[in-house]
């Protein structure tokens, strides 16, 4: 399998954490595929016309994207603990937690893009909206923290851990841990997993 990959993409990181947790990482060839909103990657677009990461190309030529689809596919390739519960309420809770974390990541990516503009070009209403969504989401995650796992982890746990790590990497000034002790304590332990430590963001885009 070929994975279009970047060391700083939080969505790629989620996929790689899943690959490591399931033991399928050795079967994946990671191909460095830089992307930018104003510079589509022609090599990536041959597999994914959206020019978005991550994109997984299977050995039979089937192309999978986005990260949620790729992670669920990887979860079918092993015999261990399932990251995606197979049925019932537990499955939909895990899927909802993943969707929540992924949606928050989308907010943070747009927020960072707006913050990086020259001050005269920044839109105050947009910045305020992003800030409100971030704070409300983090408070909701704090309430959820007692239910998050450190053993027999699921996709929701991985997705939430990755979005919190993205705060640390790209938006450390927001100090997401303040006033959220249970979430901070859970993340401190989850971040020590080998899958998280070996996927910390590196150089490049």
Automatic annotation (TrEMBL):
Q: Which Gene3D superfamilies match?
A: 1.20.1050.10, Glutaredoxin (3.40.30.10)
CDD domains from the UniProt entry: GST_C_6 (cd03205)
GST N-terminal domain spans which residues? 1-82
Pfam (any one): GST_C_2
InterPro entries in the record: Glutathione-S-Trfase_C_sf, Glutathione_S-Trfase_N, GST_Omega/HSP26, Thioredoxin-like_sf
What name does the UniProt record give this protein?
Glutathione S-transferase
Q: Which organism is it from?
A: Paraburkholderia unamae
């Amino acid at each position: 399998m070929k994975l279009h990959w970047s060391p700083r993409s939080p969505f790629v990181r989620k996929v790689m954490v899943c690959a490591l947790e399931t033991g399928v990482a050795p079967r994946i060839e990671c191909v460095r595929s830089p992307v930018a909103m104003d510079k589509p990657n022609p090599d990536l677009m041959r597999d994914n016309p959206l020019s978005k990461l991550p994109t997984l190309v299977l050995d039979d030529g089937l192309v999978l994207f986005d990260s949620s689809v790729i992670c669920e596919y990887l979860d079918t390739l092993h015999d261990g603990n399932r990251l995606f519960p197979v049925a019932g309420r537990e499955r939909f809770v895990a899927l909802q937690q993943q969707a929540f974390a992924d949606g928050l990541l989308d907010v943070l990516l747009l927020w960072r893009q707006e913050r990086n503009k020259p001050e005269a070009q920044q839109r105050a209403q947009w910045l305020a909206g992003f800030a409100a969504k971030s704070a409300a989401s983090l408070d909701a995650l704090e309430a959820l923290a007692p239910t998050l796992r450190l053993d027999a982890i699921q996709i929701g746990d991985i997705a939430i851990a990755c979005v919190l790590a993205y705060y640390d990497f790209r938006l450390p000034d927001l100090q997401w841990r303040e006033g959220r002790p249970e979430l901070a304590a859970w993340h401190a332990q989850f971040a020590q997993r080998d899958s998280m430590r070996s996927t910390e963001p590196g150089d490049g885009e």
